[in-house]
Amino acid sequence: TCKAFLPDMIQTNKGHIVSMASLAGIQGLPNLSDYCASKFAAVGLMESLKLELDAQKLDGIKLTTICPSLISTGLFEGSKPALTVFMTPEFVVGEIMKAILEEINFVMLPKWMYIIILLKWTMPRRAVEKFTENSGLLDFMDTFRGRSTNDQSEP
């Protein structure tokens, strides 16, 4: 999508790109390595693109990266949320719209997750491992079923 729209945005110095990443793009999770890799890539793409646009002084092109935890779309049906609960799609959409309107570059949902990520980068590695072990993150996918094959709704 960026390849298709970015050249015109650069030419006019106008536009807004929103990337739906995930907290799994900031914190790796067990049994989700492929999902985490794609979400880390989405976060990295937006960070790099921001730096490239800044270097070209293209301040009319806005970027917003959204990193939610679990959203009740059925994608993670059966998983046992650790540290948080499923958020409604309506709540997440409201936060995305607010971020777009306020031109916020980066959003984590729920907002208190900023504290968890700050701790991840400031605590000793062994303390982070202990926290992860005791938080339920290691087994939150043990009962995962995913979206039913009968469910044709979009995430």
Automatic annotation (TrEMBL):
Family per similarity comment: Belongs to the short-chain dehydrogenases/reductases (SDR) family.
Gene Ontology molecular function, alphabetical: oxidoreductase activity, acting on the CH-OH group of donors, NAD or NADP as acceptor
The keyword Oxidoreductase is annotated on this UniProt entry: yes
PANTHER family per UniProt: PKSB, RETINOL DEHYDROGENASE 10
Superkingdom of source: Eukaryota
GO CC annotations, alphabetized: lipid droplet
Gene3D superfamilies (alphabetical): NAD(P)-binding Rossmann-like Domain
Keyword DNA damage on entry: no
Organism: Trichonephila clavata
Keywords: Oxidoreductase
Name the UniProt record assigns to this protein: Protein dhs-3
SUPFAM superfamilies, alphabetized: NAD(P)-binding Rossmann-fold domains
